[in-house]
Amino acid sequence: MQTNFTAEQLADPHVAESEKILRRCVHCGFCTATCPTYVTLGNELDSPRGRIYLIKDMLENGRAADAEVVTHIDRCLSCLACVTTCPSGVNYMHLVDHARVHIEKTYRRPPMDRLIRQVLATVLPYPGRFRLALGLARLGRPLAPLLRRVAPLKPLAAMLDLAPQARPKPSTSARPGSRGSEGERRGRVAILSGCAQPVLDPGINEATIRLLTRLGVEVVVPQGEGCCGALVHHMGKEDQALAFARSNIDVWIREIEAGGLDAIIITASGCGTTIKDYGHMLRLDPAYADKAAKVSALAKDVSEYLSALELPEVESRGLAVAYHSACSMQHGQKITMAPKVLLRKAGFTVREPAEGHLCCGSAGTYNIMQPEISAQLKTRKVKNIEATRADVIATGNIGCMTQIGTATAIPIVHTVELLDWAYGGPKPAKLA
Amino acid sequence: MEAIKFLEPRASVVARRSAIIADLVDLLPRECVVHEARELVPFETDAFVSYRRLPLAVVLPTTTEQVAAVMKYCNRYGIPVVARGAGTSLSGGAIPQEDAVVVGLSKMTRILEVDPANRTATVQAGVTNLSISDAVSPEGFFYAPDPSSQLACTIGGNIGMNSGGAHCLKYGVTTNNLLGVRMVLVDGTVIDLGGKHLDSAGYDLLGLVCGSEGQLGLVTEATVRLIAKPEGARPVLFGFDSSDAAGACVADIIGSGIIPVAIEFMDKPAIEICEAFAHAGYPLDVAALLIVEVEGSEAEMEAMLKEIVAIAGRHGVRTVRESQSATEAALIWKGRKSAFGATGRIADYICMDGTVPLGKLSYVLEKTSEIVERYGLRVANVFHAGDGNMHPLILFNANDPEDAARAEEAGNEILKLCVEAGGCLTGEHGVGIEKRDLMRHQYSDVDLNQQMAVRAAFDSEWLLNPSKVFPLEGRPAA
């Protein structure tokens, strides 16, 4: 597509990058078809092609973001289904990332919107604060219906709805230290504890550590590691996101220098997508560019890493699993086959829900910030999953687990919990 | 060369813009009207992205009644209306103009009825082509015309352009698979044409509407014919040492009375582009590739393939490879159907749509290369060879105005060549804005006047998609 930038504008490396992305787009419109918000709202402004055009217009004219543009960019889930669909290879992810930073820098949001974003950015990435907030949410739950009636307060109601009834007990899985392998050592990996996941469902990393150590892999929980930065990154809070990234990179590089790492294992695909992008995010930082690229190259979803271990075939246990591929898994990281192959090998019957490419509406903090669209997508997703009549739902992202889990009676677990069970671990508590 | 002109916006309409928007907001739910300046920009073009015009407003109705209300209103105040499906037109059929209200059908996406007994489906016009096949697949059916953009393009747009696709060689184009429409006329009257049967008494008005590019009315619902899925289908790759040999082979296959489901052609640049995107296993060491799909029972497929392989042998085919699995077959088609978009990885392009008699395929391919070379540009050819429907993609740099002008000029020469070779300007993309001024190469003034008289019977004021199809000079005074 033709672009119209001055040489002066292109001197900004971020604009130059976006210009290159825009040049790739041929405006064919294929992306509209697989975009969850276009499918839901039927307005091109809420489609990738529409957003690309809005971003192009804003950047070319060197304009500050305005309410119209912000509305449509905010409605984007960053599910990246468009990137999977796009035949010409438009890197929508990096384009919309740039747009979000531009919005954050040039647009003043209404006070309530600003406040909620600030609260989310201050609480969610920190497990201690998040744990505390969940306790408060339980107390505040009776207020949800009231809050839902006032438009700017709807996100608060959504937050209360999402908070689990009971907080799981704190787990030792996130405690720094090394978990030695059983038998002959086949590898050494670091595992990302992350921020929200260990609070919401510590069983995921417990299962991962059990399974990996049983398979002969030493698992390290490095000291000082924190949120990957995805949450604030998607809010356009770039400085904060890069600070998280740098801090984690320091931790992992230290670990690599200390004992070597074969991989950095990630059990939340949303985080995986971002960590795999550290190399890009920090490409302009001479002090970190190389280290970031190294970390990104080592980042592996747990299903990727397990695939390389060649696990044995297990006899069928007659359990039908609906596999829900998180957007960050299938579109963000292009991991489509590995989890299903692993589950089949482990003796599960895998069923694939219709419209598997569509987002469940979780998308980080999207279900809080855009509760209406999120709820429609959730209903659609759950309907498709339930149509498979599976006994259990498996997925690889905590966000989807929380979102889908609030709307169906079918138990939902992380893929790795089923694999741990199949290869000698305990049965996941949710299936008991 | 000069850029293609649009009609001058009607000053009286543009002057009343705010009043018109206020009225539209009264007529429709709030979320169905787009009018903020920023928000109109993404509607200024379609997939023929070299031309752009901002619309006056965009409406996104959800029912036929809402469409009728808008049409009635626009007719009353002399406001042009441009229909838009998914905006995937390669000829600029959905590009608006400054005094026009765009009626977008993207919210009308309901499948209204699937009738397996009568083998029909009735859908709203904004339903995508592929979702019809998806919806009827559990019943063992599919909707045959399959434009490469079928994932995104709407049935309403398909009817507007009488779209084709790879599988139309055997099953015909949109008009051969359309049984009925509900349509809103320019004054807001809602009419039904056709039904669930193949033909109706009286004039073939449905045939007239199909391919009328939004100039006779606005289709809001369609009833289409469903086809039973074959027992099996298999795409086979035939690699040749020259485009000439591949072209002659196509003519020979069809000439000997064999009608496979599809015969698609790719030249070397197209093979490389598509393979890089889809990893479909296209041979990279050949100059031209045919994808021939056969279908039916194992025995049927084998018998037909045997004949085709024999013919290809006479044309010096170098490699013959059958797809070995459903996944491989899907990849072969994915590569082919993504060819245009995938071309965007290496350059900007404009896509031609001329159709020629099969005997002239090789000749036109050779001449096309000569023309494009003369303009100092590159070309990739990927098209529906069995139909003689050619799609040279002329590669250029959109940020270089001279390059863009040369590409357009080369395109015009190619289309004229198609007409001179006994073919026509458009096989399936429609005339739109792109080929409008070439219509005089295809038709005499007498022809054009008669066609415009038919158009005027539906829309005497030229309100519907007025800048398209007919050259601006020589139109009757409205």
Automatic annotation (TrEMBL), chain A:
Keywords associated with the record: 4Fe-4S, Electron transport, Iron, Iron-sulfur, Metal-binding, Repeat, Transport
Region (Disordered): 164-185
EC assignment: 1.1.99.14
Record text on cofactor binding: Binds 2 [4Fe-4S] clusters.
Enzymatic reactions: (R)-lactate + A = pyruvate + AH2; glycolate + A = glyoxylate + AH2
Names of required cofactors: [4Fe-4S] cluster
Short name of one Pfam family: CCG
Enzyme class, UniProt record, top EC level: oxidoreductase
GO molecular function: 4 iron, 4 sulfur cluster binding; glycolate dehydrogenase activity; metal ion binding
4Fe-4S ferredoxin-type domain span: 16-44, 67-96
Known role: Component of a complex that catalyzes the oxidation of glycolate to glyoxylate.
NCBIfam families attached to this UniProt entry: PRK11274.1 (NF008434)
Protein name: Glycolate oxidase iron-sulfur subunit
Organism expressing this protein natively: Pseudorhizobium pelagicum
Top-level taxonomy: Bacteria, Pseudomonadati, Pseudomonadota, Alphaproteobacteria, Hyphomicrobiales
